[in-house]
Design brief:
The chain is α/β, with parallel strands linked by helices and 362 residues long. An eight-stranded parallel sheet has the order 2-1-8-7-6-5-4-3.
Length: 362
């Protein structure tokens, strides 16, 4: 049995961290669903930037949309919604079969809005309405300004993928925003079942400290952060606050492990997948990681609910001079900035494609 199926049987959802029109047109995404236990999909500006820049599938669509005097951002969101609604329809049977626990796709608001609460909320409402799919989540970053937008989006009934989380403290803040939105729906007599995941980024931790700690600590920080966060999530799920919400009919917000592709070529290509196997969580994987996992026949141990030895490992990093709390803030800020960079590149790629195609047409 493939390790992808073993992971699915354990109770962890495998989502693909990629979307391209070729994946849809070629039937590759359906193959991943049918053969590799993929039950959802995530996207971000970097993914779309690579897809549009490196593939010819978008050329005609870009030309047509620019021909209708649309802005570059309007062109992008139309392209993204076309792809993601097709993906959502592919995953819809899973969404229906699991009563909305699984079968989701995600679309991110413009990263230029990461520090603007009002505009983030307005964009979330608009994109969700335009998609018209119950299994499409809107990605909102877990910045200080993003948190009230998350609460309001959840209260408005918009499913949210909280992105760019790097620590248990940031997870707690995101979970609290989700809970406040659900509690307000309960108090207002609304259906409290609004889907959400909290996306914690893993591999960027290890990339950030690789040259700053003893070699024996390499590849250990991201996993230790995940273990600490998993313990926090399990504690929260067992709290009286959560039990009241369960009783009212809501589903929990699930933890999602993001950035789980191994960036260090000296490490195992499924390092983070094996280490973060845990029920009632999601692992969103790059294609290369998914394919590598599919060639394995075993997984390893299950992530311990009590955090295992994470605090001991984290203390070793503190002894090596790593300020975990400060680095978490830095990584969130750098992540937001990297998405802005990808966004600006994406806008330039679409602009350039439109100019080239217009010249060719002329």
């Amino acid at each position: 049995m493939k390790a992808t199926q073993l992971l699915h049987n354990l109770g962890q959802s495998i989502w693909l961290d990629n979307i391209t029109r070729d994946l849809l047109d070629s039937g590759t995404l359906k193959h991943y669903v049918d053969e590799l236990s993929v039950t959802g999909l995530t996207s971000n500006p970097t993914i779309f930037n690579h897809a549009i820049k490196n593939g010819p599938a978008y050329g005609a669509a870009i030309r047509k949309k620019f021909g209708h005097d649309k802005s570059t951002e309007e062109v992008f969101f139309e392209l993204a919604l076309e792809d993601l609604t097709r993906a959502a329809d592919l995953f819809r049977p899973i969404y229906d079969r699991t009563n909305g626990v699984d079968g989701w796709v995600s679309l991110e608001v413009s990263p230029l809005l990461a520090y603007d609460t009002a505009e983030t909320l307005a964009a979330a409402k608009e994109l969700h309405a335009r998609a018209g799919r119950p299994n499409l989540m809107i990605k909102i970053p877990g910045t200080r300004e993003g948190l009230p937008a998350i609460e309001e989006a959840i209260f408005s009934g918009i499913p949210v993928n909280v992105t760019l989380l790097f620590s248990s403290d940031q997870y707690w803040a995101a979970a609290d925003a989700f809970l406040r939105g659900i509690e307000r729906r309960i108090d207002a007599g609304l259906n409290p079942n609004v889907g959400s995941v909290a996306s914690v980024f893993i591999s960027r931790w290890d990339a950030a400290v690789k040259e700053k700690v003893p070699r024996e600590l390499n590849h250990k920080l991201g996993i230790a952060i995940a273990m600490r966060t998993y313990r926090a999530a399990r504690d929260l799920l067992g709290s009286h606050r959560w039990h009241r919400i369960y009783n009212a009919g809501a589903y929990p917000q699930r933890l999602l492990w993001a950035s789980t592709g191994t960036k260090d070529p000296t490490a195992s290509d499924i390092l983070y997948v094996k280490a973060l196997a845990a029920p009632f969580t999601v692992n969103t994987m790059p294609e290369a990681t998914l394919k590598a996992l599919a060639h394995r026949k075993e997984l390893g141990s299950i992530l311990p609910a009590d955090g295992g030895d994470s605090e001991n490992v984290l203390s070793q990093f503190a002894d090596a001079g790593i300020d975990i709390a400060a680095l978490a803030v830095q990584l969130l800020d750098e992540g937001a900035k990297s998405f802005v960079t990808s966004w600006n590149e994406l806008m330039s790629v679409i602009d350039s494609a439109g100019v080239v195609l217009e010249r060719a047409a002329g």
